[in-house]
Amino acid sequence: MARQVKKTSQRGKKKAVVEWNFPIEKKNWVWFFVGIGVIVLGYILMTTGITEEPALPQGKWNNPLVIYVAPVIIVIGYCVIIPYAILNTFKKEQ
Predict the structure, then answer these.
(1) Which candidate, 93, 90, 84, places its Cα nearest to that of 38?
(2) Pairwise CA distance, residues 56 & 72, whole Å
(3) Please, are residues 77 and 42 in contact by the beta-carbon 8 Å criterion?
(4) pLDDT single digits (tens) 42-70
(5) pLDDT at site 93
(6) In the chain, what are the domain boundaries?
(7) DSSP H helical segments within the chain, as ranges?
(8) What are phi and psi of 31, to 5 degrees?
(9) How distant, in Å, are the alpha carbons of 1, 53, 74 from that of 48?
(10) Are the C-beta atoms of residues 14 and 6 closer than 8 Å to each other?
(11) Can you tell me the distance from the alpha carbon of 71 to that of 65, in angstroms, rounded to the nearest whole number?
(12) Rounded to an integer, what distance in angstroms lies between the CA atom of residue 41 and that of residue 25?
């Protein structure tokens, strides 16, 4: 975040210098990579539906894990965990 610091120049005039600290900390990066891992897990689960045998004659797929679980995991990764990692500000312990 930004913080103003007043410094005195050679002529005695005070000059405002703005210090900027990067707001994303280590915990944010950890949550970000957890979100990436969840998304990769969802895509891996989705690839388990690729088989040599065709779909059932009624038009249904063979693996319900591909139809129900994998898309929900991917949506949780993209819409919950990644925004949480970006938007959350963790309090620094003193």
Answers:
(1) 84
(2) 23
(3) yes
(4) 999 888 876 666 666 666 666 777 888 99
(5) 64
(6) 23-94
(7) 26-47, 64, 70-76, 82-87
(8) -65, -35
(9) 44, 13, 15
(10) yes
(11) 9
(12) 25
